[in-house]
Each structure stands twice: as structure tokens, then as C-alpha cells.
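Course assignment 3, question 2. Fill in each field.
Student: A.L.
Task: Predict the tertiary structure for the chain below.
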Amino acid sequence: MSSTEAPPRAGAPTTGYGYDIDRVDPRAPGRLGADPAPLRRPARWVRWLVLASAIASALILLGMLIYLLIKVFIPMGIGTSLVALTAALVPVGIVVAAVWWIDRYTPQPLGSLGYAFAWGAIGSIVTTLLFGPYFTSAITPEDAHPVVQQFLGAVIQAPVVEESFKSLGLVLLLVFGRRYIAGPIDGVVYAALIAGGFAFTENILYFANSFHEAQASGQLAGFWEIFFMRGLLSPFAHVSFTALAGLGLGIAAERRSLMLYFGLGIGGLALGMVLHALWNGSTFFIPMDPENPMAGFLRYYLIVQVPIFLLLSALVIVLRLREKRILRRQLSAYGRAGWFSPEEVEMLVSMRRRGKAERWARRHGAVARLGMRHLIRTAIALGLERHSVLFARATPRTRARERHLLEAITADRRLIGSLSAPVVRS
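Answer field:
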């Protein structure tokens, strides 16, 4: 379909599918029959409870932010904090760009993405600062050597405490927003944003301390070394660890299995802790030249960090390709039922063709473009919802959800058609 052509309209004659069931009229959702379980509005007390929970969560995050400002950032000084903040924007920008690329095929709501980053940057940091010292004191012998204390803090305390509180953000999202995590990619996206937010605040602290020491010594080389190692070479360190917990929870959410939530969730969390411990602990065993510590770090980087990063990157690419195959298969099933033509299915599974469809709709106004975008996202949700239901069983709630999505697609078709059709036929 060229950028000057209108996307094929629903109900138009199509070729390419042998319809194996009676075709319904996509422009008349009433033809679907009686709604087995209409989506009912939640009870008033439920709505008030959700609202109170949202306000309480916002206030808690605000309180945590104030705690960080008073206890951490203000004592560092405004100048040092601004320098550290500016430096930390580089690695977090790299992480956000990567998450955008992963998420753009089946995009998530901005609100839930913002929550994930806020929890990582504020919630998980504050809880780690509050509970980390107690955990460290519990595992450290009283007469331990300083090197032993440093080892226990880096290899035991940091992986267990940090990964636990980062993963807590994923659990809260599942409890209060189950629909946002529908598969492995969704779990990885939210986990990556939580980890990126955590690394963002942690990098500010590291860069601030390094910059303060550089000012005291009059040499900035140490600051730039820390920036190079943490900001440019290791922006995906925390992302790699927490993504494993997100992957496990995403697989469980796709299959709608409570047992898998515990098994894969705890398994992914444990594996992330192991990788985190390996990442931190390798520096204690890889020989370092005191006169050239950068060479030692680069050797450690190539031996430990690069293989982990490449392995997880390959896993994400495989998941992206799998998601595309799932969407094509499920939307084709709806196509055989008459809801989409083959050309529409090809448009919905191709990022390039989606862009062309949105550009075509934009020529008919902003509302038409918004309608096209909403149609695309609703069709994506429909395909992924069907895939998830096939792993479990259809319920009145899932059938009502399917009907709701189909009716939303129909409404979008009508909107786009009314805005793009000529008033007077030639």
C-alpha cells in the first residue's frame, strides 16, 4: 500500500482468506449476538479505593523524593548535583532509547511507563537506602576484615536488596495494573525502565562523589574514568539483571498461571541476583594493575559484561520476532472471521505500513490520525489478548473484553471512514 492510498476498508471484498466461518459485518457489532458478560462499571467503593490507592502511591513517591533531596542531594551541593545529574542523563538516555525501540511494536501507556521509571529512580532507591544497612549488618561478622565487608556488601547485599526492591515495582504493577503486563516483552520493558531509573539515581550519586573527589584533588581524570565506565560502557548493567525477573513474570502473565508467577518470578529474580553478584564479584578476582586500572577494567568488561549483554540482547530480539509472529497468527484468525482483510493484517504487523496508514489518515486531520493510531493499538491488544486466552480458558470476562475491543475497532473504522470519505461522490 503506497502512502497515497487509503487503507482497505472493512467490509470491502477481499481475497487471500478462505473464510472458515460465517463472516460477520465489522460495521455492525450488534451482529455479534447477545453480550454474555457486559463490561460493568466497578462498584463505587472500588473506584474510591483505586483513587485512594493512586493518591497514596503518589504521596509515598513524593515523600521518598523529598527524602532523597534532603538526605542525599542537598548535602552534595547544588553545583555538584547539577554536574552529576547532567552526566547521568547520558546513560539513562541510552537506556530509554533502547526501551523505546523494544516497546514501539506493542507500545505501553505512558502513565504506566512513567510509574516504572519513577519507582526505579525513587522508590527502589529509597527502600534500598533504608533497609540495605540492616541487611549488611545482619550478614557481616563483627570482626570482619574491611575487604570482607566490602565483598559482602558488593556480592551479597547489593544483588539481594537492590534486585528485590526493583522487582517489587513489577509486583505492584501486576497487582494494580495486571493488563499492562501481557507477555514477556512487556515484562522486560517495565523491568528495564525500573532498572534504568534505579541506575539513573545511583549514577548521580557515583558521579557526584567522583566529581567531589576530583575537585578536592584538582584532577578531573578520575571523574571522567568513572563516567566512561558507568555511563558509556555499562548503561545496561542494572537493566540486564532486572530484565530477567520481568521476563519470568511476563511469561507467567501470558499464560495466566498463578504457579508460574511464583516459579518464574522467583527464578528470574534469583538469576538476576546471581548475574548481579557475578558482575560485582568479578572485580575481586580479576587481576588489576594499580598503575593502569583502566586496562584491568576493560579486560573484566570484555570477559564478563559483554557476553551477558550480547546474550540478553539476542534474547530480546528473539522475543520481538516471536511477538510479530503471534500478532500475525492471531489477527489472521480474526481475518478469517471477517474482521480484517489480508492487507489490513499486513498493515497491522508491519511498523513501516503502520506508519504509512497513520500518514494517510493525517491528511484527513488530526482526529483521523488519532483514530487510526487507536485502531492499530486496539487491534494489537486484541491479538495479544487472544493469544493469552488460548493458554488458559475463555471466561465471560475475556469474552466481554474481546467484544469491547472489537466494538472499539468498529468505532474507529466508522470515525476514519466518516472523515476520509468524500462528501459528494464524483
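Instructor remarks: Residues 1-37 have pLDDT under 50 and may be disordered. The two ends are 23 Å apart (CA to CA).
Grade: pending
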